[in-house]
Amino acid sequence: MRTELLMTFLEVSRTLHFRVAAENLFVTQAAVSARIKLLEEDLGVLLFDRANKRLKLTAEGHKLVKHANEILTMWQKVKQDVGVGDASSTQLFVGAMMSIWDMVLHDWLQKIHRNLDDVNLFTQTYSPLELRKQVQNRMVDIAFLFEPPFIDDIEAKKSGYNSP
Fold it and tell me: In Å, how far are 59, 97, 158 from 106, measured between CA atoms?
């Protein structure tokens, strides 16, 4: 499954800018353009109106936003359910915003990975909005964000970071 095409589409639809989307996805602007072109060719429609130097979603693009989110959520559920070969091991899905990842989590998660042999650790960085969706859809076990969503049956705890 070419989920990177859908993830790229969603980022461009959110930012309405190829360069900004490329920066957010840590790829080149040419890669973003190529992915969007491939997706448009696969679907046989234009997803963005590129006239007047302003990027806008077409009617088909608006329709795809909902479906792309649903497909990516379902794909994540499939990976969680099927993706781990050893059924006796524990899966831990951790999501974070890139800024928090850079500040704190990278080293911390490496320590967890080294010290817990029976845990399959899955990590992903998200935009703040997408991470909230992942929390609401129960796609991550632990999420690190600056402002957690208030959901009745989800526990939010404040954590701090003390620099060494």
Answer: 40, 12, 19
